[in-house]
Design a protein that fits this description.
16 helices, 45% helix, 454 residues
Length: 454
């Protein structure tokens, strides 16, 4: 049955690839520089009567003060809760009346934004987005309402093993570093955030020099330039960002238990990964797919779930941040099977580090990763998001055309060399669950953390 499922899944992917690959191959990106000197990347799509705009400001939660963790998240959550002369209700009504979608989210290194609108409502959408970015109100009623939502979520997190394992991992690995703080903050810090704090964060982070923009839709370059200058042109020229030091995770080789009385425990292992700009990143991306990034086809899935039934799912990922490169493995299992699960995961990581992938595994991974890339371009929003991510990682405007060639160029020798480099270090492990779940030995020295890749 498992073989049948894999065969059907492979056929489905092949069909989707056959349909969507030409769209990805044909994506033409224009670099637009506005009269005010702001750069944006544009993909014209005249057949669709809408416009999607994705943008990112460098800064994110890493800019939260040490005693105000969660500031970026709260600020981002409030940017569509009233701006200019419109309170929260009026602002939302204006969005809804024109079917305009606008949202902001905070991540560790970036504050990300999204706008989607019908072409006929472009001017209204841009005006509302401009107000949100340049004149947010932060009215007390809205602040307290959104704050209450976040506090409720944090209280729920306090009994969720996956949240607890992740929080403990970051706190331990990056103690004293901005990455050691949780994006959503703590109950104490979120309660302490003031309206001046929110205004100060926005004033420091939202600026033109740390901005990346992607636009997709029924719009030409001249109109796109006007849109960008209208929406972003009145922002400050330069952001006032605190430096975020380069860092490597600490306490590697240690295991930390977080006690929570639930029947299922979450395991999180993390260590040093490979930076996005490193020439070995693409080989590492392929190796990670074979190890645990490929879902049903990965070695970890086969050994942890299929062969032993230890967990419903298990995955590994590469996470290249601006100031740290990381690799993670995570899963959830019964409290009495944590030790066995950890041992199986460690053994597979060790085996991959020592032997690398087989030629067949490499060929299958390369075929899948090349073909499935088209799925990143099946909507205007996804294309706009890719334009921004490529700019953030400084991959070059021709990356879409080069990307599959980079994957195809990975040789078996490359994969085996990079597997050893990526997977031969110690890892910090956190286990959230009942105490008896933390009885396994420390992670083997042959383990290294996964990083999320494109």
């Amino acid at each position: 049955m498992t073989h049948l499922i894999r065969t059907v899944a492979a056929a489905a992917v092949a069909l989707v690839v056959a349909v969507l690959a030409p769209a990805a191959q044909a994506t033409t990106i224009e670099r637009v520089v506005t009269p005010k000197g702001i750069e944006a990347w544009l993909v014209r799509e005249p057949s669709v009567p809408m416009i999607a705009v994705q943008f990112a400001f460098r800064g994110g939660a890493a800019q939260d003060p040490a005693d105000r963790a969660g500031l970026a998240n709260l600020a981002a959550s409030l940017l569509d809760e009233g701006a200019g002369d419109l309170d929260a209700r009026a602002f939302q009504q204006r969005l809804e009346s024109k079917a305009i979608e606008f949202s902001m989210s905070a991540y560790r290194d970036f504050l990300m934004g999204s706008l989607r609108t019908l072409t006929e409502n472009r001017d209204e959408a841009v005006a509302l987005m401009k107000m949100a970015l340049t004149a947010p109100r932060f009215d007390p009623e809205a602040v307290e309402r959104i704050r209450a939502d976040i506090l409720a979520a944090l209280r729920r997190d306090a009994v969720q093993p996956n949240e607890l394992a992740g929080r403990k991992w970051w706190e331990t690995a990056f103690a004293g570093h901005p990455y050691g703080r949780v994006n959503r903050g703590t109950l104490e810090d979120v309660q302490a955030i003031t309206i001046p704090d929110l205004k100060g964060y926005v004033g420091r982070v939202l600026a033109r020099d740390n901005l990346k923009i992607g636009i997709v839709g029924n719009i030409d370059a001249a109109a796109a330039a006007r849109l960008v200058d209208e929406a972003f042109g009145s922002l400050p020229a330069k952001a006032q960002l605190a430096p975020v030091p380069q860092a490597t995770p600490q306490d590697l080789g240690r295991r930390v238990q977080v006690e929570v009385d639930v029947p299922q425990s979450t395991l999180m292992l993390g260590g040093v990964g490979i930076a996005r700009a490193d020439p070995d990143f693409i080989p590492a991306y392929v190796v990670n797919h074979i190890l645990g990034g490929g879902s049903f086809s990965s070695r970890l899935y086969r050994e942890v779930r299929e062969s032993r039934g230890l967990a419903y799912g298990v995955s590994s990922s590469l996470v290249p941040l601006k100031s740290a490169a990381l690799f993670f493995v995570s899963t959830a299992t019964r409290a009495d099977r944590v030790k066995e699960s950890m041992e199986v995961i460690e053994a597979e990581i060790r085996r991959m580090a020592e032997e690398g992938p087989t030629a067949e595994e490499l060929a299958q991974a390369k075929s899948f990763l090349k073909g499935s890339y088209a799925l990143s371009f099946d909507t205007s929003g996804k294309i706009a998001s890719q334009l921004v991510l490529i700019q953030i990682d400084d991959l070059g405007i021709d990356y879409i055309d080069r990307r599959n060639g980079l994957i195809e160029a990975v040789t078996l020798d490359d994969a085996r060399r990079v597997a050893k480099r990526l997977l031969s270090g110690k890892m910090l492990a956190t286990v959230a669950g009942r105490p008896e779940a933390a009885t396994a030995a420390a992670p083997a020295p042959s383990q290294t953390p996964p990083v999320k890749a494109q």
